[in-house]
Amino acid sequence: MASEQQPIHVIGGGLAGTEAAWQIAQAGVPVILHEMRPLQASPAHHSEELAELVCSNSFGAQATDRAAGLLHEELRRLGSIIIGKADEHAVPAGGALAVDRGQFSQDLTRTLAEHPLVELRRNEVTAIPTDSIVVLTSGPLTSAALAEDLQRFTGMAYMSFFDAASPIVIGESINHEVAFFASRYDRGEAAYLNCPLSREQYLHFWQELCQAEQAELKDFERETAKFFEACLPIEEMARRGEDTMRYGPMKPVGLFDARLGDFKDPANRDKRPYAVVQLRQEDKAGQLWNMVGFQTNLRWGEQKRVFRLIPGLENAEFVRMGVMHRNTFINSPELLDASLQFRSRATLFAAGQLVGTEGYTAAAAGGWLAGTNAARVARGLDPLVLPATTMMGALFAFISSASPKHFQPMPPNFGILPDLGQRIRSKPERYGAYRDRAFADLAAWHTSLDGSAPGLLVNA
Known about the structure:
The chain is α+β, with helices and mostly antiparallel strands.
């Protein structure tokens, strides 16, 4: 019986660990999920809940002809609990999948704790267990003792980059006479609050942002810092040039205040903003708003001073300031197979940001595969490798085969998928073709295993 089996240990209760533990338990195999919070805090987390979303409440674009949306849908079809709960706790976000992060994490914590085959242990694991199957999902903020043990096991030092989170503003403190609701090009529900800036306002904000004082990086040297390009601090972006932010998070294209008239009317051309700061709803009640793309390492006092220069945020009240922290990851191409097993130990798996995938959905995808394969190994079955034509399969094929010398974290993207074998000039049509192939190959792959529900993959 499943209850007589030796439990699998999952170390780390983030998105990857939560997904892995759920897939193991759903397969009928007992699992112990270790989470060190609240006994030991991390530099970035704010609660003791499982699967806490640290940097943002958004999982990215919903549309399946976008890389993130394709990955969402692949996980839905495979029975992901992370994406399932994200759908349940979604908040308006235009074309993106965003969640009420408090309800999302609380629901996952409760659901895992109530599963009869899941034991949730609040303890710090200081060494990788050697007498059982283990899924390592301790994330980019792995505790020092466990990190040292992993380095001893691999014989390699960690690689690292610096990641940051955006401030969160109380909705009532936003000046709605200035800020306006709109989604870019009027696509989907007008779910974003937009703070418009004139050229003069933008240049003043840019100059002050460039001169603002940053927080110290504490235990690591500033000169060794590497920023992950997909999550640059806003002040770093500003220092790269006057217009860099206007081609990034402050891009005004497709955004117009409908209160000023019809944006298609040429007479309203001069009313269009020079730059825009967007805020995305954090909770279902609409009481909290995240400054989109404004991850930062400025001192907290400087954040308040400079960000209140943004029209509409003159009296902004912040419930969370932006923070920056060091993220570490292993050199996966040297260590892992596409099954997410360590090549030197078939009973040890890893997933999440620790292995060099970037983004919430990628973490859930890694947790799904590592958890499914751990349960299969416990049952004496061969581990699975997903088709490389799926976004999940391509992502894990990449991290297990990229150049070890230049390996850096990789988000889901169409560039890692195999060529279509035909030239399609239209980008939307090309991405749609990638999607259609991914869905077809995922269905064929699944049918070839057992032809039944995704949760039974361990019984193939």
